[in-house]
Structure formats: structure tokens, C-alpha cells
């Protein structure tokens, strides 16, 4: 019985996917961190009725910009890795659920690294 080796991925495609994965990972972490800060801010303001300074609204703005970058990074990686639409959707939506962006980033990193032989 012979084991069949996985087909070799072209080095240029590996490079493009690796760069897209790096950008995706950074944006996933930045988005996740800003989302956690935003959740803490909202709990303090709306649940615990703590008076939040006006400048703290910048957290929501920063999360919005980070999420837009995350969506673009997801699109970029999805195109290069040729993801199915459901993978794109679940990856994109993870940027609005606290802690989920960290979990999904780790899963996608593991999957893409294995599929494209990026070790």
C-alpha cells in the first residue's frame, strides 16, 4: 500500500497565501481586542451606569475601522485560499462576537497552514 503525497503548492501561491494569512491574523487580533474593550465600555456605561468620558467613544470608532480592515483581510485571504462562501461568512461574522475572532483566527491559521504547506 502506497501513501500518496499531497500535491505540491506553487511557491508563489504559498507566498501570497502566507502574506494574506499574516494580515488576516493581525486584523483578527486587533478587531478582537477592540471588541472586548468596547464590550467592557458598554457594560460599564449601560449596565453599571458608570459615567463614561466623551473621548471614550473613540473605542467604538476604532473597532469599526478595525472590523472593516478585518473584512478586507478576510476577503483577501478567502480569495487566495479559495474558500467556500460559508467559510467566508463564518470567518467574517466572528469579528462581532466577543472572543470568537481569536478562536476562528486560530482555526483558519491551522487549516490554511496545513492546506498550503506553509510550515
UniProtKB/TrEMBL annotation:
Membrane topology according to the record: Multi-pass membrane protein
Any one cellular-component term (Gene Ontology): plasma membrane
TM annotation in the entry: 21-43, 55-79, 86-104
Subcellular location, principal: membrane
Compartment(s) of residence: Cell membrane
Record bears the keyword Membrane: yes
Every DUF3817 domain range: 21-110
Keyword entries, A-Z: Cell membrane, Membrane, Transmembrane, Transmembrane helix
NCBIfam families: integ_memb_HG
Protein name according to UniProt: DUF3817 domain-containing protein
